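Can anyone check this?
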Amino acid sequence: MTTGAPTAGGERTVIGTGFEPGEVVLVAIDRDTRYQAVADDTGHVFRTFPVYAMAAEGAHTVELTTVPRGHTAVAEFGVRYNSPS
């Protein structure tokens, strides 16, 4: 996953490895499946997703699940709010 905590309204990129080339991977944010990606020829998955402006500050999860094997990997990421200027 990209480093640093994004601000609400920003975006985040998840990077997964160890998949079968061409394998479909579902991407869930906080247990809500919203996106999918396809593993490249080296078994890597890259998916950028928005961090919604209404996202609560603090810890969130991104989960990658393979189809049809159902293997799952989960990572946490933080969300912060911009400080008022």
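Reply from J.R.: I decoded it. The chain has no helices and six strands.
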